Amino acid sequence: MQHLLVLSKDSKLNKLIGAIPMDQLHQTGIKSDLREYLVGSIISQQLSTKVAKVIQDRFLALFKNKFPTNKAILKMEDEKLRAIGLSYQKLSYIKNIAAYFEENKLHRTNWNELSDEEIMKLLIQIKGVGQWTTEMVLMFGLSRPDVFSPGDYGIQMAMKKLYKLNLEGKELQKKMIQIAEKWRPYRSHACMYLWAWKDSK
């Protein structure tokens, strides 16, 4: 596998690759409906995986267990969304996503024809969808191989420990980006190993 050859050149990362079985890595997959991934990422923000799954299941149950159209999301009463465990902020972000996709007719978009930068530029215009969310969409929603997320807390914790970085804030992120340069064009794969290593501790 080409990505392992590239990543194993980093001696510290190579130790993780040797220690972590492939089945422990986070799974990515092409989502036919990118809205579904975006809505899921908004729901799961600042929640444990278990709690996020419960709320996502409740969300789908409101729409007869099928992911809803933009119009169905926009018509859904706020109180019903609040009742499944969504904050006012999260439900407004979800409605922002539906409105943006509807107004810009993004359901017709062939995401495979767009670069990572073009997709980020499009999605970051939605209120509630920031840099981190777009990075997760690219990695997990579209299986893009070379995405790095220096603002992700889990990646930060793993790299601080693995590379013994005694830094915080912008200085930490700057150093992380510098280290990650050697992982190109497979930075997404490196992130999967860092998350799995952090979760196994």
Explain what you see:
The chain has 201 residues and is mainly alpha-helical. The chain contains 12 helices and no strands. Helix content is 61%, strand content 0%. It folds into 2 domains: 70 residues, no CATH class; 108 residues, Hypothetical protein, domain 2 (Endonuclease III, domain 1), CATH 1.10.340.
Helix content: 55-70%
- According to CATH, the fold-level topology of the largest domain is Endonuclease III, domain 1
Q: Helix-strand pattern, N to C?
A: HHHHHHHHHHHH
Uncertain runs are none
How many E strands? Answer: 0
Radius of gyration: 18 Å
> What structural class do you assign from the helix and strand content?
mainly alpha
Total number of distinct structural domains: 2
End-to-end gap:
26 Å
Question: Helical region count?
Answer: 12
Q: If classified by CATH, what would the architecture of the largest domain be?
A: Orthogonal Bundle
Q: For the record, what CATH class of the largest domain applies?
A: Mainly Alpha
Mean pLDDT: 93
> Largest sheet, if any?
none
Q: What is the 3D shape?
A: globular
